[in-house]
């Protein structure tokens, strides 16, 4: 009981610290830019007392972008934590399993072949992600090696998806490929409020399923026989978990493009912070939002006079983080 209380106190403390970091990053992101806002002006404008230009800059330019970074990063953190807990493997993420690649193929097909965007793009991205997830589930249903073969299969699917995307890109017009390339890189620029509301609605709608998965997954990890004896159906848990992870990943891909490494890094950071072997789904969501918001700040202001897509920053930082993680593990389980 004492160990359990200590773990709960530590988890609560970590949640509060990460939440404070999220608030600080949000305040910085809303304040800096070509039209800087002092803390007093930011607070006044948030409560409706600012000038017209301050209100426009805050609520129409910066707030949607910051809100999308937090919501989308949180969704990716949730998806990564669910997949890693399901497979018992710290390398499991929508990126490495090919789910993002499947969403990318169908989204690029909608952009370049059908020539449309909007809801059809979101539906196409979700359909591609769920198709890849179903294929991987069928390929790895009998694997008992911690999911490594499933991850290798996902890497193979990712290469196949990349080949299909390249084929579609070289056959399209230059104007169309520029739009598709920006989407494939991943960007938060020109984010309208309706996209933020759509992603937030999907995340909120998935929370009941996430809570159920968080309760079931520790039991499923005990083994199919034990889980069945405790009244939990492993097949239902597996399908539910993958569907929720694909939904969260695909809805972010539909509007932002395939943002890489956030879903992998957020649970990897949450795990040592919690310190008791748990994935920490809620903590992973907060860390994912903070990571994407910080990456967007670096994308906007890291190089003076040049803004880069946020996917470039997350890819670079994520690759360095993964190499450091592998270098410092020294053969231990990550």
UniProtKB/TrEMBL annotation:
GO cellular component: plasma membrane
Record's keyword terms, sorted: Cell membrane, Membrane, Transmembrane, Transmembrane helix, Transport
Membrane-topology annotation of the record: Multi-pass membrane protein
Gene Ontology MF annotations: transmembrane transporter activity
GO terms of biological process kind: siderophore-iron import into cell
Subcellular location, record wording: Cell membrane
Transmembrane regions: 12-33, 66-84, 120-138, 150-172, 192-214, 235-261, 273-294, 306-328
Family under the similarity heading: Belongs to the binding-protein-dependent transport system permease family. FecCD subfamily.
Name this protein carries in UniProt: Iron ABC transporter permease
Native source organism of the sequence: Microbacterium rhizomatis
């Amino acid at each position: 009981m004492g160990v359990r209380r200590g773990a709960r106190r530590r988890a609560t403390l970590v949640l509060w610290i990460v939440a404070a970091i999220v608030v600080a990053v949000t305040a910085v992101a809303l304040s800096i830019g070509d039209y800087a806002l002092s803390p007093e002006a930011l607070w006044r404008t948030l409560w409706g007392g600012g000038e017209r230009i301050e209100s426009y800059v805050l609520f129409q330019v910066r707030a949607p972008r910051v809100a999308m970074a937090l919501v989308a990063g949180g969704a990716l953190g949730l998806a990564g934590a669910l997949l890693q807990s399901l497979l018992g493997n710290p390398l499991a993420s929508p990126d490495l399993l090919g789910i993002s690649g499947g969403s990318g193929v169908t989204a690029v097909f909608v952009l370049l072949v059908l020539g449309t965007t909007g809801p059809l793009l979101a539906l196409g991205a979700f359909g591609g992600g769920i198709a890849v997830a179903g294929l991987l589930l069928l390929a790895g249903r009998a694997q008992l090696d911690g999911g490594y073969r499933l991850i290798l299969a996902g890497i193979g699917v990712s290469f196949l998806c990349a080949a299909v995307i390249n084929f579609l890109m070289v056959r399209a017009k230059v104007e169309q490929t520029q739009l598709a390339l920006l989407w494939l890189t991943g960007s938060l620029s020109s984010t309208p409020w309706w996209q933020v509301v759509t992603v937030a609605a999907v995340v909120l709608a998935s929370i009941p399923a996430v809570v159920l998965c968080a309760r079931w997954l520790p039991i499923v990890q005990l083994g199919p026989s034990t889980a069945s004896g405790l009244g939990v159906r492993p097949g239902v848990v597996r399908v539910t978990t993958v569907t929720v992870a694909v939904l969260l990943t695909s809805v972010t891909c539909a509007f932002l493009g395939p943002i890489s490494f956030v879903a992998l890094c957020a649970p990897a950071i949450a795990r040592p912070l919690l310190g008791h072997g748990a994935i920490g789904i809620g903590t992973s969501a907060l860390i994912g939002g903070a990571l994407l918001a910080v990456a967007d700040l670096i994308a906007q202001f890291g190089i003076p006079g040049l803004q880069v897509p946020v996917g470039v920053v997350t890819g670079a930082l994520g690759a360095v983080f993964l190499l450091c993680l592998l270098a410092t593990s020294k053969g231990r389980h990550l």
